[in-house]
């Protein structure tokens, strides 16, 4: 099931996509779609502060251990209904699971939230199976759990379903197993990568870790992860092409310049998402990035991004 996004640039779920006001700003921006913060069954305050270092030294990226702070899916169902009435832009509801007092298992949480968000008017769902900042092992690292979640959701909803995954750069066998499971379901797209997990920075002046949760370990985003993101995009693109699967790849990670975006398209991404850049520049980033992409396409003889997707050459 295809999902049309134009321009092919959206926000990545996470930065500045929590409240109604933040989602309104996204709806009014040049982003091709609005992606919500990953919502859970119950509202969450998230991890203790300080949990975000927006800008690491030398602008290599950002470091966070947010812990999925969000309003809970009931609130997002109302917000999406409100946005649907006012804007024509596609609304993508990002869904995650986390411990909650209702004691629903993760699979039931995904199913219940997905059903409710489809009813609220969401145009698509993005199943975040890869949050690196909870105590639990991400679902994306367990193939059978991935299969159970996808089965529970795809048989309940009729709108497009995407999956947000972590980097599998050091686990090639796990990558292959997860990719083959995706072929079993009608998945619209794979968004890769979520932030690089278990990374650390230290303030040498105070000799302390820069964030508090999880012993200072957090997810790394921004320019430093671009090579990892490109590799994951290309691996998924080649795998889906080989198996003639109509699953799009959405590139996430390290995109700051138009050239970074072009690299993602060459690697196989048909849509890109920005997280750290959106954190740094706000809504203006979408227009700047898209203008740069269009300028590059024109200068190099391309009429559209589609002509570029997956055309990287081997040496």
Helix-strand blueprint:
Blueprint: E1 9-11, H1 20-27, E2 34-35, E3 52-53, E4 62-64, H2 73-86, E5 91-95, H3 106-120, E6 124-128, H4 143-154, E7 161-165, H5 172-182, E8 189-192, E9 196-199, E10 202-203, E11 208-209, E12 218-221, H6 226-242, E13 248-252, H7 258-267, E14 271-274, H8 276-281, H9 284-299
Helix pairs in contact: 2-3, 3-4, 4-5, 6-7, 7-9
Could you list some keywords that capture this structure?
315 residues; alpha/beta; TIM Barrel; 4-stranded antiparallel beta sheet; 9 helices; 14 strands; 35% helix; 16% strand; globular
Give an account of the 3D structure:
- With 315 residues, this protein is an alpha/beta fold.
- It has one domain: TIM Barrel (Alpha-Beta Barrel), CATH 3.20.20.
- It has nine helices and 14 strands.
- The strands form three sheets. Strands 1-14-13-8-7-6-5-2 form an eight-stranded parallel β-sheet.
- β3 and β4 form a beta hairpin.
- α2 packs parallel to α3.
- The longest helix has 17 residues.
- The radius of gyration is 18 Å and the shape is globular.
- The model has no long low-confidence stretch (mean pLDDT 96).
